[in-house]
Amino acid sequence: MTHRLAVLISGNGTNLQAIIDAIDAGRLSASVAVVLSNKTSAAGLQRAIRAGIATITLNKENYPDRAAFDQAMIAELDRFQPDTIVLAGFMRILSPAFVAHYSGRLINIHPSLLPLHKGLHTHLHAIQAGDAEHGCSVHFVSDELDGGPIIARARVPVLENDSEETLSKRVQAREYELYPRVLEWRATGRLTLEPRGVQLDGQPIPSEGFDLDQLPAELATAPANSRRS
User: Fold this and answer.
1) Catalytic residue positions?
2) What is the pLDDT, as a whole number, of residue 219?
């Protein structure tokens, strides 16, 4: 049975597009069952529609609080029986109940080399901190903001003349490589979150996650670059 993804977005949906492209190219053994957004104006919804994927939008103004909104999300998502919930630029803090409901199935990509630079404006923070390198991380989601167990990271150098915009673009290019590859591990049943930590092929992975550029040989043939559109 094909591994079913539910992708949550708030904006342009470029990581969603990377996932769709990887599936279309046969490099990701999954299907996107539904795309959910908290913003009706999210451009990523049009990417989903063009790909023939079901979409859902929920307006926070229709719910009294975050808990009620998240319960509505759970009800909508569960109709599609997702195997993995994929956060791809979903700009809301999730309630503990939502995280618990999808424990071990909820994955996020964050634009920094976690545990560095949690939260927003990570590219600016990396430049201001004088970091020699920056990048992105894919992790399982926990109640701690950007603090769940790390699965894998991808790096870029911080150049002397980098602006927030130029650094962001290079990090995004690495996101489009990293996310489909990690999701392929999930889709093929290799990647799990166990009480003893993140496991790949039944073995613990490093606490800092795998480095995309230094993968063991048996992982290096997994999906890489995704066609952009």
Assistant:
1) 110
2) 78
